[in-house]
Amino acid sequence: MARFAGARRPVQPRSPALPDAGGGPVVVQPQRRKHCAACRQGPLALLMLEDGVPRCLDCADLGHLVFLPRGDAALTRRAREESALSAVVVRFARRRGRYERQGLLVEEAALARAEERCLADAEVRQRRRARDARRRVAEDERFVAEFAAEIGRLFPGCPDDRARAVAGHAALRGSGRVGRSAAGRALSEAAVISAVVASVRHLDTPYDGLLMSGVPRREARERIAGAVEGVLREWREPTAPEVVEPAREQGRSDGSGGREPGVAGVGR
């Protein structure tokens, strides 16, 4: 079928760029079956892209390296220091739309030397990790208290235990929630309000039930928007409690002369 003059070609999605490894080689863990373009071996567990085509590690002159998975920061750092040649191993994460590091390829002798160094000061590093853990716990407790105090300032009607729960949920380390964002750590008003809104949405409205029944997220939020705003309004401007005056003593300034209430003017 002839293409109309001036018609635009469909835009092809670009492949995500490999991460920068500081100038060193980058090796990929493929998600699909790949074969080496040079020796035709495969499917490959690891490959290196050269001019857009896959090469096995032997053809890429990396076959003598051993794989060190991520997880031990000290061992990874020292193995890279000891190894004259190393490569970063990455895998594409579809959910995040990017390549993520999986570990390193290093020389086997370099890995052995790095392991010896780690064993030599393992006790020292263990004590340091324990100190760092205690410091992080103290920092987190202080931050949660500050976050809860800011909730109380913006929403004076919010119960104290609820404010603390919202702060603890939003500020959980490693959660990626609003409390761990730069705005959240700075206690910005928008971040604090966002945390409170999320709590109200899930705990004070039928939002979760709507999602479970198949209602699209945007529509579900529209349905419960009024309920969320009602709770926020109540917390922003709490109603002052009604003051009940104590009953006056009988026979004082009420003209009842000590009679029981409700009998004034009633004949015997």
Structure in words:
The protein is built from 8 helices and 6 strands. With 268 residues, the chain is of the alpha+beta class. A 4-stranded mixed beta sheet has the order 1-5-6-4. Helix 3 crosses helix 6 and helix 6 packs across helix 8. The longest helix has 33 residues. The C terminus is likely disordered.
Summarize the structure.
With 268 residues, the protein is of the alpha+beta class. Helices cover 42% and strands 12% of the residues. The strands form two sheets. The protein has a four-stranded mixed β-sheet.
Secondary structure elements and their pairing?
Elements: E1 26-28, E2 48-50, E3 53-55, E4 65-69, H1 73-82, E5 87-93, E6 98-107, H2 108-120, H3 122-154, H4 160-170, H5 182-185, H6 189-203, H7 207-212, H8 217-236
Parallel strand pairs: 1-5
Antiparallel strand pairs: 2-3, 4-6, 5-6
Helix pairs in contact: 1-2, 3-4, 3-6, 4-6, 6-8
Any descriptors?
268 residues; 8 helices; 6 strands; 12% strand; four-stranded mixed beta sheet
Distance between the termini: 111 Å
Strand tally is 6
Secondary-structure element sequence?
A: EEEEHEEHHHHHHH
Strand content: 5-15%
Q: How does the overall form come out from the CA principal axes?
A: elongated
> Could you say which structural class the secondary elements and strand pairing correspond to?
alpha+beta
Mean pLDDT: 83
The biggest beta sheet reads: 4 strands, mixed
Strand order in the largest sheet: 1-5-6-4
The Cα radius of gyration reads 33 Å
Helix content: 40-55%
Low-pLDDT runs of 5+ residues are 258-268
How many helices? The count is 8
